[in-house]
Amino acid sequence: MYRGKLVNWNDDKGFGFISAAELSSNTFIHISTLKHMSRSPKQGDYIYFEVERHEGKVCVIH
């Protein structure tokens, strides 16, 4: 499991990117993986997450 900071978030489109020290690049995150949150994500939030490779790209799951 990784801990990362939400460095970019587009509320209208429902996605953003997380930066984690253990990962070499920012990682895509979709609003569907954040259903458990009681509010909308905000840039600067810290999130615990797991990653999955899909068609050569890394994206957030759980």
Brief account:
This protein has 62 residues and is an all-beta fold. The chain is built from no helices and five strands. 0% of the residues lie in helices and 52% in strands.
Explain what you see.
It is a single chain. The protein is globular, with a radius of gyration of 11 Å. It is mainly β and 62 residues long. Strands 3-2-1-4-5 form a 5-stranded antiparallel β-sheet, with no helix packed on it. The chain has no helices and 5 strands. The N and C termini lie close together (10 Å). Strand 1 (2-10) and strand 2 (15-19) form a beta hairpin.
Shape: globular
Strand ordering within the main sheet: 3-2-1-4-5
Structural class: mainly beta
Describe the oligomeric state of these chains in a short phrase. single chain
What percent strand? over 45%
Low-pLDDT stretches are none
- The strand count comes to 5
What's the rounded overall pLDDT mean? 90
Spatial separation of the terminal alpha carbons: 10 Å
Task: Give short descriptive properties of this protein.
0% helix; five-stranded antiparallel β-sheet; mainly beta; 5 strands; 62 residues
Present the secondary structure layout.
Layout: E1 2-10, E2 15-19, E3 27-30, E4 46-54, E5 57-61
Antiparallel strand pairs: 1-2, 1-4, 2-3, 4-5
